[in-house]
Known about the structure:
Blueprint: E1 4-5, H1 15-26, H2 43-60, E2 67-72, H3 75-87, E3 91-96, H4 99-108, E4 113-119, E5 141-144, E6 146-147, E7 152-153, E8 164-167, E9 184-188, E10 199-204, H5 221-226, H6 236-252, H7 254-275, E11 279-281, E12 292-297, H8 303-312, E13 315-316, E14 327-330, H9 337-353
Parallel strand pairs: 1-13, 3-4, 3-5, 5-8, 8-9
Antiparallel strand pairs: 2-10, 6-7, 9-10, 11-12, 12-14
Amino acid sequence: MKKHNFSAGPCILPEEVLQKASEAILNFNDDDLSLLEISHRSKPFVDVMENARCLALELLGLENKGYKALFLHGGASTQFLMVAYNLLNKKAAYLNTGTWSSKAIKEAKLFGDSIEVASSKDKGFSYIPKGYEMPKGVDYFHCTSNNTIYGTQMKSFPKTSVSMICDMSSDIFSRQLDFSKFDLIYAGAQKNMGPAGTTLVVIKEDILGKVERQIPSMLNYQVHLEKESMFNTPPVFPVYVSMLTLEWLKKLGGIEFIEKVNNQKASLLYTEIDRNPLFKGYANKEDRSIMNATFNLVDNKLQATFDTMWKEAHINGLNGHRSVGGYRASMYNALPLYSVQALVDVMQELERKG
Length: 354
Ligand SMILES: *Cc1c(COP(=O)(O)O)cnc(C)c1O
C-alpha cells in the first residue's frame, strides 16, 4: 500500500497521473517511443505543451483576458529574479511573509529598490501582516500567497491599483480566487501540480516591455512568449506530468471542487490540533494555511514515541522544515481525506497512551 504522503515538496501526485506518466515513459502516444526520446518539436509534444498552457489558464479562469501561460525552467527561485529583471524599473513593494518572500526581496535588490511594506519576521513568520500602506510610485507589489514553511496563507489581498505579482507555488489550483487581480502569477510545479523541473508562469502580456535594461533571452518573458514556451528545449517530462495533473483536476470539477475537499482536510486536522492537549498549532489561527499545517508537541519528550507511531502508520513527510522543526502536514490537492484521518487517528492514539 502506498504511504500517506504529507511531503511538502516534491509532493504527492494523483495515482492515475503517476500511472499514465509511467506508461508515457515506455510508450508515448502509441508511437512505440518514449516521451523522453522524441523531439520537443514533434506534434505529439507540441500538443502536450499547448494543452498544458490552455488548461492552466482555463482552470484559473483567465482565458481570453490577455493572459498567457508559460512552462519555464529554473524553479520558482528563478522567478524571484526574472520578475525583477523584466518588471522592476526603479522600485517595487514586497510583503515579507517568510523564507521564500525574503529570497524574492533579496533578488529584487539586484535590480532596484525593493521596499518591504511589512514583515512578520518579528513573530517567526507565524502570521500574515495586514493593514500596511502601499507605497506610491512602485512598479509592482509582490507577495507569497502561501507560506509553505511556516504554514500561513493570505486570505485576502490588498485592494490596490498597483500591479500585483504573486508566488503561488504552494497553493495554486487549491482554492478559488479572482486570479485576474494579479498581473503575474508563478508557481514551481512540485508543490501542487507536478514533478520538480518546471515552473508555471501566468502573465498579463501588457505589463511587459516597460523596462529599459537589456534582458538575456533565457530570462526574458517576451522571448518565451513569442516562442510559445519552446524557446529552448522545455522540461518535457515535468510539463507532461503537469498537464496530466491539470486534466485530472479538471475532470474532478476544477478548483471549485478541490477547494471543498481541501477545506475538509484542513478542518479535520486543525480541529484535532486544537482539541488534543498534546499538540499546539504554530500559525496564527486566522492565517492558517489549508495546504501546510504546522504544529508542535506541547511536551517534546513525546517526540520519539510520536515519530515512531506515525511512521508505523505508514505516514511520510511529517517533519517540519529544517529551519523551524516541529511538524508540518502538507495537504496538497492529491492527498486524500483518508490520509488526514490516518494522521488524526495517530494523534488520538498518542493521547490515549499519554
Ligand atoms: C518551494 C517554494 C519555492 C522554491 O521553489 P523552487 O522550485 O525550489 O525554486 C518558492 N516559493 C514558494 C512559496 C515555495 O513553496
